[in-house]
What does this fold into?
Amino acid sequence: MTRVRDFMHRGVITCHLQTPIIEVAQIMDTNRIRAVVVTDDEGQVAGIVSLISILKAWGKDLTKITAEDILQPYTITISPESPIEEAIRLLQKKRIEHLVIVSPEGRRPVGVLTTFDVVQNMADMPAGTYRTSIEWDE
Amino acid sequence: MAKLARELMRRGALTCAMDTSIKEVAQIMVVNRTRYVVVTDERNAVAGIISARSILKAWGKDLEKTKAKDVLLPYTVTITPDTPLVDAIKEMQKRRIQHLVIVSERPPHKQAVGILSASDLVVHMARAKKTEEKR
It folds into this structure.
């Protein structure tokens, strides 16, 4: 059985509830990622700021709005041992692109599973076996 | 004046046909490192878009036999280069999609001319502010 741990990325890029949105946008830009996991004072997952949620701040003062103001609360509990089918169902049902994988003991983030990680598996092409004429990372 | 889609869209779009297999669509995404493929009909008009999420509908099915037309998100709202960005953003939020197809305003109608992506918008937010700080 394929499990979440077979497809997920280890390690999570996080920010705090009080991080201003301008910094969250810069974290995404610098790391070329599409979601930042928001943690509370205990380092537990409070929510996630995705591209779609950050657009709520479009046209506003990005230094005054914090991650807490626009995050999508994250209540899903999915662990590295969960079957991949469960993760795929959640991504579709919740209409999200990223699942934060939490440690079984607590709500500490241990990894992220994205829709693209699943697509890579569907494409069935080992890394390094293909070439592209378009050089962008979009 | 309000910013328009043309200011932040990327020219050109990756496309596939209605009967392209899902395996091939997934390969187009991986090879080009994109999270969308635009699906066009026999007249080359936009029929819809496949996102990294909509393609998941095909998980567990035969990926050679399942076709682009089976998983596409139908094209509904017309976004042209002259659509204000705020309207495009509303559409992204409403449908929870990260890419909008930009179509031509002039005939032939419904031809894809570009893509507006949420990630390009957020990069713009991150950098616009930096520029202001430097002043």
